[in-house]
């Protein structure tokens, strides 16, 4: 009887120290619960981060959207930092800390989107490291390692690739999330004043951090703090929201008004469940509802009420409330808007705490299943990472066309592209004084010689034949549209050297006026599935899109890799069947 009792006690974990010790079970199970093996498993967390480094390296130098509007507000005429500009919200969100990051990127790195993207990767990696530091020590090393890998896979998921390849976005959303995690860690350790200070920094980073204040109040309740600590975060939150409301521009942001409860719930659940579907809003709603159901079920579970899990309940509260804020603010944008890539950063803040809570409860129930829990968590992370492939494909295609905006800015045709860029007279002076890309020597049309303002000799060039009804064996091309945008025309078309793999491929496309001067350019080697489906054997990237002023004397010049040139008149073919 005595030996039985001793054996039972030996099988029971005795606090933090015992959880760290390797199991005495024989064979492979002992190795799987070994701390050294767990550390090796944790190295898998680097894989998603490295994958995102590759994506950012391919993202291009030019910045995106909100960055330009913010840069105008925070830059003085002499290129110095304009402090007052940081207090104006962008699309209803405070961007004080991101604004500083934008200006530093502009001042120190020519405004390179990739440099800021690498910084966002560091911010995301720091978030993973902080989450690792607060994993329950009662879990064995292998389970904690699995949770670290799963968290990394979700934070660096292809679902949220938008945050990294469009770094202006991630430097706001992910910075806010990082500071939120810091604030909750401080609060979970009873350092309330420091937690509130970090909370103020989080709300200065992005509006989603407003949800931190109720989460801090929940954490204070879970810790059974004095009423002052429970109420103070709510009071601070009210003051912060009040200040934001005063500063918020009185402009309409939204699509068609949708004020019904069904639309609100649909958008909310879609954002919560975004991680678990590629592009199906209905499935996201189901996944979001299931997520919330699991949270409610765990509330009554004794193991889930362990004091070591209080941080995770607070983080989950933040994530859910932030998703609700986004749903409320963006309900007017349509049923599928909750699937937007950047919203996955909030869905992750809901998913990761749930995984930790479930892992803790399952391990408490059946300890010998620790290895299975670790493998399952990693598998869930891999699924969340991989499901973002369709989102990533759309982003990669957008990246291929994005250099057209650089041409528009450099050539002075920015107004032709509409609100994706600020007005030329507002943006150009700041970019020039900062020597910001594309107003520096790193800008190029990529033609191996001809640039904007260059003169090229077309006397020996011939007109590019249009395709017939069969797959072309020689150089052919055509224009699909010439869209008058005022100061310039947006021209789309395609060209190829033929179906032979050794054929001369298109290097770039430029717009040339009647004096043989290059007055426009854009991007070539764009995917055109419609063309390759009709003409079998062509390479997939035969499309081009260029911007420039069009007259009767204009020529759209196709420059091949060999240096050979062909031209197209600025007219659209009706059928493309001319020989």
From TrEMBL:
Bias-annotated ranges (Basic and acidic residues): 1-13
Highest taxon, organism lineage: Bacteria
Spans annotated as Disordered: 1-27
Transmembrane portions of the chain: 115-135, 141-158, 170-187, 193-220, 227-247, 281-299, 311-331, 343-363, 375-393
Alphabetized UniProt keyword annotations: Membrane, Transmembrane, Transmembrane helix
The protein's name in its UniProt record: 4-amino-4-deoxy-L-arabinose transferase-like glycosyltransferase
Organism name: Actinophytocola xinjiangensis
């Amino acid at each position: 009887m005595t030996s039985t009792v001793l054996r039972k006690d030996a099988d029971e974990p005795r606090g933090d120290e015992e959880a760290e010790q390797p199991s005495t079970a024989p064979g492979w199970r002992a190795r799987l619960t070994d701390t050294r093996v767990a550390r090796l498993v944790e190295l898998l967390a680097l894989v998603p981060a490295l994958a995102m480094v590759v994506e950012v390296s391919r993202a291009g130098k030019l910045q995106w959207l909100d960055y330009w509007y913010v840069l105008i507000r925070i830059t003085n005429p002499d290129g110095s930092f304009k402090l007052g500009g940081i207090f104006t919200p962008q699309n209803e969100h405070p961007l004080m800390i991101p604004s500083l990051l934008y200006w530093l990127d502009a001042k120190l790195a020519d405004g390179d989107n990739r440099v800021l993207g690498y910084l966002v990767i560091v911010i995301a990696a720091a978030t993973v490291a902080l989450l690792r530091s607060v994993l329950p020590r009662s879990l064995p090393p292998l389970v904690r390692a699995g949770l670290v890998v799963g968290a990394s896979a979700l934070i660096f998921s292809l679902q949220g690739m938008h945050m990294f390849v469009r770094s202006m976005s991630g430097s706001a959303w992910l910075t806010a999330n990082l500071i939120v995690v810091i604030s909750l860690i401080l609060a979970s350790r009873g350092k309330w004043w420091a937690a509130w200070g970090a909370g103020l920094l989080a709300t200065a980073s992005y509006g989603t951090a407003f949800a931190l204040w109720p989460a801090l109040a929940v954490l204070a309740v879970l810790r059974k703090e004095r009423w002052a600590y429970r109420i103070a975060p709510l009071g601070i939150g009210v003051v912060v929201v009040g200040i934001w409301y005063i500063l918020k521009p009185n402009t309409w942001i939204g699509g068609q008004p949708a004020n019904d409860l069904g639309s609100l719930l649909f958008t909310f659940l879609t954002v919560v469940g975004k991680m678990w579907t590629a592009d199906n809003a209905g499935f996201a709603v189901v996944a979001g509802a299931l997520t919330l159901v699991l949270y409610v079920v765990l509330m009554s579970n004794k193991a889930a009420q362990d004091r070591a899990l209080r941080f995770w309940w607070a983080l989950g509260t933040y994530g859910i409330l932030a998703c609700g804020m986004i749903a409320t603010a963006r309900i007017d944008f349509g049923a599928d808007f909750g699937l937007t890539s950047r919203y996955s950063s909030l869905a992750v803040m809901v998913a990761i705490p749930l995984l930790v809570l479930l892992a803790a409860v399952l391990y408490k129930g059946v300890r010998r299943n620790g290895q299975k829990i670790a493998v399952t968590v990693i598998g869930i992370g891999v699924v969340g990472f991989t499901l973002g492939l369709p989102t990533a494909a759309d982003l990669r295609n957008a990246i291929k066309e994005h250099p057209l905006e650089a041409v528009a800015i450099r050539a002075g045709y920015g107004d032709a592209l509409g609100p994706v860029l600020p007005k030329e007279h507002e943006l150009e002076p700041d970019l020039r004084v900062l020597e910001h890309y594309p107003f520096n020597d790193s800008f190029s049309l990529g033609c191996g010689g001809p640039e904007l303002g260059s003169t090229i000799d077309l006397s020996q060039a011939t007109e590019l034949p249009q395709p017939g009804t069969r797959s072309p064996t020689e150089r052919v091309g055509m224009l699909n549209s010439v869209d008058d945008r005022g100061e310039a025309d947006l021209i789309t078309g395609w060209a190829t050297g033929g179906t032979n793999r050794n054929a001369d491929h298109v290097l770039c496309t430029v717009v040339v006026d009647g004096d043989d001067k290059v007055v426009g350019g854009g991007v070539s080697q764009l995917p055109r599935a419609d063309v390759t489906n009709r003409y079998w054997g062509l390479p997939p990237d035969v499309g081009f899109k260029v911007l420039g002023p069009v007259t009767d004397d204009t020529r759209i010049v196709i420059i091949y890799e060999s240096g050979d040139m062909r031209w197209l008149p600025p007219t659209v073919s009706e059928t493309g069947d001319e020989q």
